[in-house]
Amino acid sequence: MNRLDVAIEISKHVGFYLMQFWGRASNIEKKENFQDLVTAQDKNSQELIINKIQSHFPNDGFLAEEDMEKNSKNLWIIDPIDGTINYIHGLPSFCISIAYYEDKKPVFGTVYNPFTEELFVGIKDEGAYLNHSRLKVNDINNLNFAVGSLGFTKNFTGKFIEKVENNVQRIRIIGSAAISACYVAANKFDFFITTKANPWDIAAAYIIVTEAGGCVRNFTGNNPKIFEKDSYIFSKPSILETLQNIISEIGGGI
Ligand code: 2AM
Ligand code: CA
Ligand code: CA
Ligand code: CA
What we know:
By secondary structure, this protein is an alpha+beta fold. It folds into 2 domains: 3-135, Fructose-1,6-Bisphosphatase, subunit A, domain 1 (Fructose-1,6-Bisphosphatase, Chain A, domain 1, 2-Layer Sandwich); 143-249, D-Maltodextrin-Binding Protein, domain 2, CATH 3.40.190.80. It contains 7 helices and 15 strands. The protein has helices spanning 3-19, 40-56, 84-89, 157-164, 177-185, 199-211, 240-249; strands at residues 29-30, 37-38, 61-64, 68-70, 74-82, 95-102, 105-113, 118-123, 127-130, 133-135, 147-150, 170-172, 191-197, 215-217, 230-235. The strands form 3 sheets. Strands 4-3-5-6-7-8-9-10 form an 8-stranded mixed sheet, with helices on both faces. Strand 11, helix 4 (157-164) and strand 12 (170-172) form a beta-alpha-beta unit. Helix 1 (3-19) packs antiparallel against helix 2 (40-56) and helix 5 (177-185) runs parallel beside helix 6 (199-211). It is globular. The protein starts with a helix and ends in a 5-residue tail after the last helix. Bound molecules: adenosine-2'-monophosphate and calcium ion (3 copies). The site of one calcium ion (CA) has 6 residues, from strand 5. Mg(2+) binds at residues 65, 79, 81-82, 201. Pfam families: Inositol_P (PF00459). Keywords: Hydrolase, Magnesium, Metal-binding. InterPro entries: Inositol_monoP_metal-BS (IPR020583), Inositol_monophosphatase-like (IPR000760), Inositol_monophosphatase_CS (IPR020550).
């Protein structure tokens, strides 16, 4: 099995496991604060993924949300559940995000939502797919037609919504950064903006969106630093500049 096949197989296996506990997660614990939670299912999901990868590729390294870091030029970046709060509450937007990078350069990313059975795959220079259908971002040329989404954007969400609510069709917040970004690749959202994203939130979706022809920038207009915490604008090409201008007007932030 190649690495991509391993990622897809383990995502579906872990997805089946996660659905058994959806809306009734166990051992819910606080991490940094009461809004930052981890469950037994986050930890078990991560362990299942890493064990499976190690059984095929014992020398590969990992960067995973629930305390796992092992450096290697062959690096897997894993979020075992993106959207833990949704998962705990039995809401449908959560996913398993797995990315594979070599020498810090993207190779492929997979994002799997076990509730909707949507599997997003992006392969460097080979395109992006949703359940085998090729994804291609179709542009819109006016923010008025846009449905956009926001992620973890404390102190920014209110200001941004106030600024754009009369200029966009709708803003939707769905609680999973990886799914929100993939929805830009799939033309469900026209943009997705988040601050303070970690590598595991975004590493897979980054490949999926760029391979679908979407734009990805940080708030300073540069390519985001995937291996650090950074701000992200995922967007259709023609509305990117307008979004960047709005963000600078309200003061940005990372
Ligand atoms: P998680 O579910 O893996 O924790 C929810 O708004 C989105 O933001 C999810 O993708 C969630 O990932 C992420 N998130 C949660 N807490 C965060 C934090 N402290 N910093 C950045 N992203 C966070
Ligand atoms: Ca978390
Ligand atoms: Ca996450
Ligand atoms: Ca997580």
